[in-house]
Write a structure and sequence with these properties.
iron, five-stranded parallel sheet, MRET, Elongation Factor Tu (Ef-tu), domain 3, six-stranded antiparallel sheet, metal-binding, 2 domains, Ferredoxin reductase, globular, Rossmann fold, about 240 residues
C-alpha cells in the first residue's frame, strides 16, 4: 500500500546523481537489491510514479534511494533538484524478490554495474558490511569518467570495504595512472577482475539494457551457469 514518507536528507553523489533519505510512516525492512515505487502528486492532482532501487539497508526506520537525473525527465529532475527536505512523497514497497542478495548465501559474489546500475549492487555491499559477512565480493563498475563514479569516496575506503575488490572500468575518460584502454566492458575485464566459473559465484548485473546483455553474454561465454546470473536493466 502507498504510504507517506518525509524527505529527511539529501546527498549529492555526482553532478547528476543524488541520494535521498526518506522516513516512511512504517517500514518493515527490505532485502539488498529490492526497489520501491515513489509517487508524486501535483497541485492539480496529476500523479507520476517511478521505481527506484533502494541504495542501502533500512536504518532507524529510514530508507535511501540514489536517483540519476534524466535529461528532460519528468520525475528525476524534481527529486534531485527541487523536492525540499521536510516535504513528503508517497512510497510503496519493497518490490522484487529475485534480484536480491541474502547473507545466508555463502558463495562468492560478482557484481557488474554500468553507470547508475551501481545502486542496487551498492545496497548489497552495504548489507554485507552491516552483517559483518565474510563472503568475498568483487565489483566491476563501468563508468564514463571519474567524475561520474557514484559512491566514489565510500568505494575507495579499504577500512569500510574489507573483502570487497573493486575494479573501475572507464569508457570515455580515465585518470592518468590507469593503463586499461578506454572502452566498454569486455571479456578481458571479466576474466581479469571477476570470479572464474569454477568458483560458482552468484552474479548480479545491473545497468542499461545493452550493457546488461553484453555482460551476461560474456559471463556465459566464459562458462558461468546462466542460472547463477541475475540481471536488472533500465532504459
Amino acid at each position: 500500500m502507498w504510504q507517506k514518507a518525509r524527505l529527511v536528507e539529501r546527498r549529492v553523489e555526482t553532478a547528476s546523481a543524488t541520494t535521498l533519505v526518506f522516513e516512511p510512516e512504517q517500514w518493515d525492512g527490505h532485502l539488498a537489491g529490492q526497489h520501491a515505487d515513489i509517487r508524486l502528486t501535483a497541485d492539480d492532482g496529476y500523479q507520476a510514479v517511478r521505481s527506484y532501487s533502494l541504495a542501502a539497508p533500512a536504518r532507524d526506520g529510514r530508507i535511501e534511494f540514489t536517483v540519476q537525473r534524466v535529461i528532460d525527465g519528468e520525475v528525476s529532475p524534481y527529486l534531485c533538484d527541487d523536492l525540499p527536505e521536510g516535504a513528503y512523497a508517497e512510497i510503496r514497497g519493497p518490490v522484487g524478490g529475485w534480484f536480491v542478495w541474502r547473507e545466508a548465501d555463502t558463495r562468492p559474489v560478482m557484481l557488474v554495474a554500468g553507470g547508475s546500475g551501481i545502486v542496487p549492487l551498492q545496497a548489497m555491499i552495504r548489507q554485507r558490511r552491516a552483517v559483518a559477512s565474510r563472503v568475498p565480493f568483487r565489483l566491476l563498475y563501468s563508468v564514463r569518467s571519474p567524475a561520474e563514479v557514484i559512491y566514489s569516496d565510500e568505494l575507495a575506503r579499504p577500512s569500510l570495504n574489507g573483502g570487497l575488490e573493486t575494479s573501475l572500468l572507464y569508457t570515455r575518460e580515465a585518470p592518468p595512472e590507469v593503463r586499461r584502454p578506454l572502452g566498454r566492458i569486455g571479456l578481458a575485464d571479466i576474466t581479469a577482475h571477476g570470479w572464474p566459473p569454477e568458483f560458482e559465484p552468484a552474479c548480479f548485473i545491473c545497468g542499461p539494457a545493452g550493457f546488461v546483455e553484453a555482460a551476461a553474454k560474456i559471463l556465459i561465454a566464459l562458462g558461468h551457469d546462466s542460472h547463477r546470473i541475475k540481471t536488472e536493466r533500465f532504459g
